[in-house]
Amino acid sequence: MKRLRVEEQHILSLVAADAAALHVTPPHVRFVTGCAGPCYEALFNRIEVDRATLALPEPLLRIVVAHEVGHATQRRTMLLDFAWTVLSVMALLSIPCVVFATSSDEDFWRVSVPGFGFVVAFFACGKIWRMRSAKRSAAFELDADAKAASLCGAASALAALEVMAARGHIDAARLDAMRARLEAA
Ligand SMILES: [Zn+2]
């Protein structure tokens, strides 16, 4: 096993401390060289940390790590969402398969019209699903921010979000939610 650098060891200890505070299994951490920003992968219960994140100043780094560990508390819901999506797509796709498998060749023109209707319905469902998943992921982000605020304090979380917003990493809704949290506290 390669020796971890000091910054990487530091991230691991932050993750372990946050996971203990949030009563969740500590996620694995993978250090990557890309520049996509930190992210959480529910399937592998893993946080990916890029080089730019490693170089963040300490207060900002703490919030970023707390936010990502916050996502680990949502793992069950994320995986259920994923399983539900796969099942729904499979169920939807099985409809035309059954129709075509049970129709005789002479019926072909009679099934092609409902078949076309099915394709239209399939794309409509896809659009609804994309809107729903955008809403779900926005809710996951707000919840992870709330967990970061509970660990590091709403004032430092807001300061971190403002820095990230200036870099274009986060949207205004997350900033507004954190400001409201700070006012309520
Ligand atoms: Zn997030």
TrEMBL record:
- Transmembrane annotation, as ranges: 82-102, 108-129
UniProt lists the family membership as follows: Belongs to the peptidase M48 family.
Q: What class of enzyme is it?
A: hydrolase
Q: Does the keyword NAD apply?
A: no
Q: Which UniProt keywords apply?
A: Hydrolase, Membrane, Metal-binding, Metalloprotease, Protease, Transmembrane, Transmembrane helix, Zinc
Molecular function (GO) terms for this protein are: metallopeptidase activity
Q: What is this protein called?
A: M48 family metalloprotease
| Cofactors that this protein relies on | Zn(2+)
* Pfam families, sorted: Peptidase_M48
Q: Does the keyword Disulfide bond apply?
A: no
The protein's matches in InterPro entries, at most eight in alphabetical order, are given as: Peptidase_M48
The residues covered by the Peptidase M48 domain are 58-157
Species name for this entry?
Answer: Caballeronia jiangsuensis
Which E.C. number(s) belong to this protein? 3.4.24.-
Question: In the record's cofactor note, how is the cofactor described as bound?
Answer: Binds 1 zinc ion per subunit.
